[in-house]
Known about the structure:
By secondary structure, the protein is an alpha/beta fold. It has helices at about 5-20, 55-70, 80-90, 105-110, 130-135, 160-165, 175-185, 210-220, 240-255, 270-275, 290-300, 335-345, 345-355, 380-390, 400-415, 420-440, and strands spanning about 40-45, 75-80, 100, 145-155, 155-160, 200, 225-230, 235, 280-285, 305, 315-325, 390. Helix content is about 40%, strand content about 15%. The longest helix is centred in the N-terminal third of the chain and has 19 residues, at about 5-20. Pfam families: SBP_bac_1.
Amino acid sequence: MHTKMKAAAVLGVATLALAGCTSAAPAAGGGSGVKQDDEAVLEVWTRTTPGSASEAATIRQVEAFTEATGYKAEVTAIFDDFETKLAQRAGQKDLPDIVLNDVSQLGTMQTQGILREIDLKDIKNSKDLSPQAIDAGKAVDGKTYGIPYSAQANALYIRSDWLQNLGLEAPTNWDEMLEVATAFTKNDPDGDGQADTYGLAVPGSTKRGYASWYFSNFLWSAGGDFITGSGDEWLPSMTSDEAVEATTWFRDLQCKAGVIQPGAVSMDTPPTNETFESGVTGMYVTGPYMMPRFDKVLGADKYEVVPMPEGPKDHSVLAEGGTVYLMAGSENEKGQTAFADWYISPEAQKFGMEGTEAFAIQLPVNEKVDIADVRDDARWKTFADAYKDSGHYAPTIPSWTPVRQMSADTINALLADCSLDVEDELTKLDGKLTAELLTQGILKQ
């Protein structure tokens, strides 16, 4: 989208949201001017598919909140057009009380003026949050507008039977990862006599920025980043030596080594998942939420989960997760606060991790909770350690989506066209990121 058009679109959404909240925008800790009613039922929106196992897990969790605190709450699951429906409710000055949404949406929602600031002193369990979770709840102004309640971090899924067939071990660094990927591609690891396997599954589509989302694991492991800065001062950084090195290495997996599955540039996660579970690809960097599915379809005995292979700098991996957002204009702010506090309590964190299919809590953010006390599966500890030691959230800026999309477009193009020059394309990307940061009012001058 043209920068000026995009700015107008963002301003339009923000204006709509602000129109819905201006008369009721509360200061930290309350004081919104809205008549309070501690008995009012909390309306909880969760960004998930209605009727799904994820919705059922959230309902179970919210029912446990009511039982523990006495505050009543009702869950509404919405997936399609979630942001549009939220903006409509803002325009009607009737926002839900609680929104459970991705941590990456904090900047956008805070910029729209639909969140109330949270005083961490009112959230007693916040003292036990992981440092990166606390930081992920802050906007560019340094104030807290969200309480992360569930985390996920990536690790490497790898076909253990293929390793055994070829006499290999799981890779621990990029060099070894390339060696294994090459062997998986060229040495018939499944023994069917056909050249039909590939080393690494890659969702390289531009849809929803998937190419960038996946590539971030490698970029951060090389010590690079999409943008660098803090607060309201940021600069593009895709032409840094570290970013160029990471991009070149990742692109060479496709253009030189040929170890990425065919059609990767048009695949988002669903078809990429299928390449791993169907025996087309032998390695896949993704989160813990895929284990129940892969156990069922592929078989837990066919693969293992190991830490992300270390890059030139470290083994940082993408960290994501769910966040509790307290919406502006609520008539039950005490209930809102109690909800956020209970959701990150040891009791709630453990309860939300129980089950075998869908979980209200993927990985705990409360450092008092040991995942091994809930799940008797060492693979979960691999993910928990990855989050604790190497988890890297995307920067919290007014809107992360366009940054992810622009970088996805570039990574996708480099994978699709091996004649393109990496440094030239990254220079163009930095130019686009500069314009975007200026549009968002956070370009360092």
